[in-house]
Amino acid sequence: MDLPGTPAELAAVIARAEERYVRTHRQGSMATVSAMILFDALRRDRAESSRKAFSRQQLRDAMAAHPAWERKAFEESSFNTVPEDLGEQLAQFAHDDSVGGRRYRFRFRGPTRKFRNDKTSTELFLEIDAERLEPAALPVRRRVGVVVAALLAVTAAILIIVFRPRHAPPVAPASRVSTLAVLPFRLIGNDDQLRFLGTGIADAMITRLSNLDAVRVRPTTTILRYENREGDLQKIGHELAADYLVFGTLQPAGDRLRAGAQLVRVEDGVAIWGQNFDVARADLLSLEDNIADRVATALQPRLTAEQHARLTRRFTSNPLAYEHYLRGRASMLLLTRKGTEEAVREFEAAIDSDPSYALARAGLANAAAQMRIRFAARNEIGTWAARARQQAEEAARQAPDLAETHEALAAVYRYDEFDWEKVMDETARAIAINPDLELAHDYRAAAALHLGLLPLAEREAREAMQINPQRPVESIRILGVCALFEGRYEDAVTLLREVAARTDIADYHLGLAFYDAGDTANAKQLLRPLTGGEFRNARAAAALASILAATNRRAEAEQIAARVVRQSSIDHHVAYSLGVTYGQLHNAPQALRWLEQAIRTGFPCYPWFARDPLLQPLRADRGFAALLDRLSAQHDAWGRRYEGRSPQAYFLGDAAGAFVSAGLSPRSMSSGSAIGSRPRKARYIAAGSRLPPRESTISRKRWPFARDMPPFSLNQ
Fold first, then answer.
1. pLDDT given for residue 67 in this prediction
2. Nearest to 69 by CA among 22, 125, 11
3. What is the DSSP secondary structure assignment for residue 528, as one 8-state letter?
4. Is the pLDDT of residue 209 over 70?
5. Buried b (16+ CB within 10 A) or exposed e, 78-91
6. 517 or 283: which carries more pLDDT confidence?
7. Please, which residues bridge with residue 129 across strands?
8. N or C: which end of the chain has fewer CB within 10 A?
9. b or e along 676-685 (b: 16 or more beta carbons within 10 Å of the residue's beta carbon)?
10. How far apart are CA 376 and CA 457, in angstroms?
11. Domain extents in the chain
12. For residue 179, what are the β-bridge partners?
C-alpha cells in the first residue's frame, strides 16, 4: 500500500518516530547520531521515488557537523560497527501513529552489512513502510507499502577530529552524561579464600557510585568477564561503552591488605586519579569508603551534603557481616544453582552477624526468588517463596529508601506472586531512587509484557540494554517475546535463538516462534527435551500439546495435557497453553476455563489473546468474544496508568515528573559537576518527599476482570 497521509502529515510522523527512537537508544552513540541524520534526511526528502544512499565519507562529514556528536573524535573500529548496530536496532523498531484518523504501524529498514565490509559502498540508507492497524487490533498480514527513500545532500567537508591534550582536566561536555565502569580488582597471590574480593569490592563500589547524579555506572553483570583478565584498558573501555574506568589490585600481607586503585579516562588513557591503600583485613569498609570518595571527588568535585551522605552511607559497621555480603554477591552473580545456594548461605551468615543489615536481606530475597523460579523442585517451591517474601519485607521495613529493597520486593512479586501491578509499583520506586538498576528495568519490562503493554516492555528492555551494553540475556528474551506477541515471528526466532545459545535455560517461547514462523519440525524438536525448573518443564509440555493439537496429533496432545494437569505446577503460562490446546481440540468450555485461569493468575496479555494464531478456533465463540472485551477494557486502563509516565512522575507527582522529564532534579540545581551540570537522577530523598505508601504484606492478586472459576473437569 502507498504511504498514508499528506507530505506534511508523513513528515510529522517521521519526526515523532525519530524522537521516540532517540529517546529509547543510547544518547550520543555513533549509531544513534547516524539514525538522527538518516531520519532527518527521510523527513526532508521523503518525496524522492528512488533510494539515495550515503557514502562513508558523507556520513562522517554529517556526523562531525551534527550537534549531538559534540565534536568528539572518531574511533574507526567503532565507526565500522555503525551499520551492524544501527541496522539491528532499526529492524526491531516500530512506530504506531495516527494519520487521517486511522492507525498505522510504521517500520524502518536501515544499513546493510555491505557498508561495513566495503569501504566504497553507499549502502547506508533509511527506508519506511506502513501497515494499517485494524480497529479491533486483530491479527492482520503485513501489507508492505511503497518504499519512500531518503537523500541528505551533504557537501564535502573536512572531518574535525578533536584530540584532547594528555594533561587536560577530567571535564566532559556539560550536556552529556558520562559512563563509568568499575572493573574487578586483580588479586595478587594465590589465596583462594580471598578470591571473592576482586568481584566483591567492585560490586560494592558500583552500588556506592551509582549515587552520583552525573554518572551512569555500568552494572556488575557487565564487568564479570574481566575478572582476572589483563588487557588494553582503552579497548576494554570501548567494549563497555564507558568514558571512565576504575581498576585496581589487592595484595594480602598477613592480616593486612594492600590495595591500589586508579581512575582512567578511556578517551586518551590518562590516569585522572590513583592511590595506594594499606588497611587491616577487618577494615574492608574503610577501603571501600576511601576509594569511592576519591573517585566521586574526581568525577563530581562539588558534592552537596545530601549527595555526600548518600555516597558514604554504610548499611553495616560489622566487618564480618560485610565480608559475608561480598561473598554472597560474588556467588549469586554466577547464575548457577551451586552459586545461588552458596549466596543464600553467605547472606544468611551476614544477617546472623548483623540482623539490621538491609542490603544482605535484599540479597537473600533475590537469591531465594531466583532459587524458587530457576532451580527449585516442586516440593521446594513453597519454602523458597516464603523465604523470599519474608526477607524482602524485612529489608523494606529496615531501609525503605534503599533501591535494592524495592528491587527485591519486585523480584518476589515477579517470580512468586505474578502480581504485575505491584511489580510496576516497586520497580518504579527502585528506579526513581536509582535509575541504573538493570534488574529493576528488566522486572518492569516483564510486568509490562504480561500486562500487554508491549511498547513499554520494549522500552524498558532497551533501557536495561543501555545500562548493560553487552546485550543482557533477559532483555533480549523480553524483546523476543514482544516480537512474538506483535506477530514478528522471524524477529522473535532470531532474538530467542540468541537467548538459547547463551544460556542453558531455554525458553518455550522459541518453540512457539518456530511454529508461528512456519517451522513446525524445529518447534517440536525444541519443546520435547526442554529441561530446567518445575515450571519450565510444564510450560514446554503444555506448549507442545497446543502445537500437536493444531497439527492433528489430537490423541498425543490430550495425553500430554492430562499429564501436565496431574503432575505439574500450573502457572499462568501453562494455563494459557492448556486453553489453546483445548481450543484446538474444539472443547470451547474447557478452553475458556483455562484461559480465564491464565488471566486470573497473571497473564492478561490482550495483544497476544487477540493475535495468537493458535486461538483461531475460538474466534467465533461468544464466550471468547466476551473475554476479549473485558481484557481489552482492562488493557486500556493499564495503558492510561503506565504508558507515557516515567516512574519518577508516577511516584513524585506530575510537577516533579516535569523536572525529571527535563533532566533536572526537583531540588535546587546550584551544585556543580565536572561531568555534567544537570543531575540526571531524581530520588525521593532529593525530592524532599517520603516514599509512597506500600502495602505491608504480600497477598495473592485477583485480577479485577477475571470471573470466579467454578471447579472444572478434564472430561467436560
1. 64
2. 22
3. T
4. yes
5. ebeebbbbbbebbb
6. 517
7. 107
8. C
9. bebbbbbbbb
10. 27
11. 7-132, 178-318, 418-642
12. 216
Is the pLDDT score of 148 beyond 90? no
- 587 close to 115: Cβ distance less than 8 angstroms: no
Q: Report d(CA 499, CA 478) in Å as an integer.
A: 10
C-alpha cell at 566: 496431574
User: What number of other Cβ atoms are within 10 A of residue 553's Cβ?
Assistant: 16
Please state, as a whole number, how many other Cβ atoms lie within 10 Å of the Cβ of residue 141.
Answer: 7
Q: What dihedral angle (degrees, nearest 10) is formed by the CA atoms of 495, 496, 501, 505?
A: 150
Burial class, 565, CB count within 10 angstroms (exposed 0-12 / middle 13-18 / buried 19+): middle
Q: State pLDDT tens for residues 299-311.
A: 776 666 666 676 6
Comparing CA positions, the residue from 672, 695, 614 lying closest to residue 214 is: 672
| DSSP 8-state assignment for residue 54 | B
Alpha helices in 505-605 (DSSP H): 508-516, 520-527, 534-550, 554-567, 572-584, 588-600
What's the gap between Cα 634 and its chain centre? 25
Of 35-49, 95-109, 360-374, 642-656, the one with minimum mean pLDDT is 642-656
Of 279, 381, 387, nearest in space to 343 by CA = 387
Beta-strand ranges (E) seen in 269-428 are: 271-280
pLDDT digits (tens, 9 = 90+) for 320-356: 888 888 788 878 867 678 889 999 999 999 999 999 9
Instruction: Report d(CA 627, CA 588) in Å as an integer.
Output: 12
Mean pLDDT for all residues in the chain? 75
Q: Which residues pair with 191 in a beta bridge?
A: none
Say which CATH topology domain 178-318 has: Rossmann fold (3.40.50)
Tens-digit pLDDT profile for residues 519-542? 999 998 888 875 444 555 888 899
DSSP 589-624: HHHHHHHHHHHHTT---HHHHHH-GGGGGGTT-HHH
Give the homologous superfamily in CATH for domain 418-642: Tetratricopeptide repeat domain (1.25.40.10)
114 grid coordinates: 555491505
pLDDT at 660 over 60: no
From the list 153, 191, 133, 155, the residue with the least C-alpha distance to 52 is 153
